[in-house]
Amino acid sequence: QVQLEESGGGLVQAGGSLRLSCAASGSIFSINTMGWYRQAPGKQRDLVATITAGGTTNYGDSVKGRFIISRDNAKETVYLQMDSLKPEDTAVYYCVAMKLGFIQPDYWGQGTQVTVSS
Predict the structure, then answer these.
(1) pLDDT score of 110
(2) Average pLDDT rounded to a whole number, residues 66-88
(3) What residues have CB less than 8 Å from 64, skipping those under 6 apart?
(4) pLDDT of residue 90
């Protein structure tokens, strides 16, 4: 089993920045890819970004150029630096972790709220 603990969410004004963190614990040897999904009220859960153990990144179209995902493999911690935040970024952000060759996320965090005011 793997446990994921998110932190760093909060309330910010449009144009501001936040950094989310997610620390993995448990059977972390099985993890290859980590990342973030988000879900706004009444909307589907969408991919934000992923990063492999080797550092390969992938971003959802809506956050490209504004968000940066990074990873500290020694700490098994993934970060999401969010700049130029927009009200449309308001959502619950979920940390995810996947095994090698994943089809869908294998583990989910509890979520952290990000609210961007206009």
Answers:
(1) 97
(2) 95
(3) none
(4) 98
Whole-angstrom distance, CA of residue 22 vs CA of residue 63: 18
The answer to whether residues 48 and 38 touch, using CB atoms and an 8 Å cutoff, is yes
Average pLDDT, the chain: 95
Q: Letter for the amino acid at 27? A: S
Give the Cα separation of 89 and 93 in Å (integer). Answer: 10
Judged against a pLDDT cut of 90, whether residue 81 lies above it is answered with yes
User: Structure tokens of 82?
Assistant: 């969010």
The phi-psi region of residue 106 (left if phi > 0; otherwise alpha if psi is between -120 and 50; otherwise beta) is: alpha
How many Å apart are CA 57 and CA 50, to the nearest integer?
Answer: 6
Length of the chain in residues, anyone? Answer: 118
- Phi first, then psi, for residue 17 (nearest 5°) are -135, 155
